[in-house]
User: Fold these one by one.
Assistant:
Number 1:
Amino acid sequence: MSKAKWVFIICAFVCASYYGAWFLWRAMGWHWHTSANIPGFAMLLLSWPWSSAVFGFQIELQEYIGEAPRHLVTSAFMAVGFAFNMTLAYLAVLFLVGKVKSHNK
C-alpha cells in the first residue's frame, strides 16, 4: 500500500475518532472542556469544501434521520474531507520536494 493511502487512512481515523469521542462525551453528559474543541475546529476548517454540503443541511438531516445518524453522517463527511485534503497536501509536499531536489542537482 502506498504511503498516500496510509496518510488518507490515518487522517480519516484520527478525525473520526475525535468526533466519535466528542459525540460520546456529549451523549453521556460528561464534562467536555471548551479548549478540547480546538482540534475539532481545525479539522472542520481543514475538511472544507468537502464538508460544507453536509453542514448546509443540518436542520434537514436532523428532521429526516434524527440526531445520532446526523452526527454520524457529519463525522463521516468531515473525516473523508479531512483525509482527502491532508493526502493532497502530502502529495503536494512530495511533488515540491522532488522539484527542489531535481533543481539542486
Number 2:
Amino acid sequence: MAYIGFARTNFGPYETYERILEELRKRGFNISFSKHHWMGDAPFGLIIADSDKGKIAVRWSLGKEFELKLEEVSDEDWDEFIEDTLEYLSGD
C-alpha cells in the first residue's frame, strides 16, 4: 500500500516535519525511515517515509493551522506524486 497526504501548517519546516511524523504515529504508522525536502525560500515541502503500512508521501504548505489529510493510492500514483512534487521543488 502507498499513501499520499496533504498538510497545512503554521510552523516552520523543521517543526512541520516533526508534527507530520508525530501525526502519522498517532494514526498507527510505525515509521522506519523518513526524509524531508524543501527549499529555503519556498512555503512548501515534501516528506517521504517508509512505514509498516507502506510508503507515505506528504506535501505540506503554509496555512493558518496544522491539518493533515491522507489517502491510499496505487504505487504508480505515489511515484507520480513524488516525481511531480520534486520537480516543482527544484524549479524544473
Number 3:
Amino acid sequence: MDWEPGNINYQGQDSGVHRWQVDSEVTLFWHPDWLHLAEDITGMHKRVPLDLNAGEVPTEAHALKAVEKVVKARKGEA
C-alpha cells in the first residue's frame, strides 16, 4: 500500500504523550510541551523538530506534519 496520511497508526495518548506507530521499526511520541517528536515516551531522545513560526504554540497538527515528514523520508519521498 502506498503511503497516505491516513495510514499512520495513531495509538492515542497516555499522560498527555501522543504516540504514532509509523511502521514496524519506528514509533514516535509527542507531548504538547515538546518542540520535537521523540523516539521514546520520555521525550529525551529527540528525532524531529516541529516546524513552528516564532511564538507559535505547538499543536497536535504540528506533530502530525512532523510524523508525515518522517514517513515520507523513510519511503524516499522527501
Number 4:
Amino acid sequence: MEMNDKVNLLINVLAEMMNVKKQEKFVAHERNLLDTNDVKSMFRISDRTLRRWRNKGLLKSVIIVGCLYYRREDVMSLMVSKFRDEIK
C-alpha cells in the first residue's frame, strides 16, 4: 500500500468517525438528553461536582457510544430541588 493510499484511508476513517459523532449528537438531542458540558454550564459546576452528584445518585447518566448523557427531566428536577434548598 502506497503512502497516498494510507493517507486517503486514514482520511476516510476520520471522516466516518466524525459522521458517527454527529449522528450520536442528533440521537441524544432527539431523546431529550443533555451532555456533560450542557449540565455543567446549566449548574455552573465542575467535572468533579458532576461526578460526585452521579456517585451520590442525584443524577443518573446514560452512556451512548462512550459519552455520558443525562435525561433533561432528571436535570430539571434536580435544578428545582437545588433551587428550593437555596431558598430555605
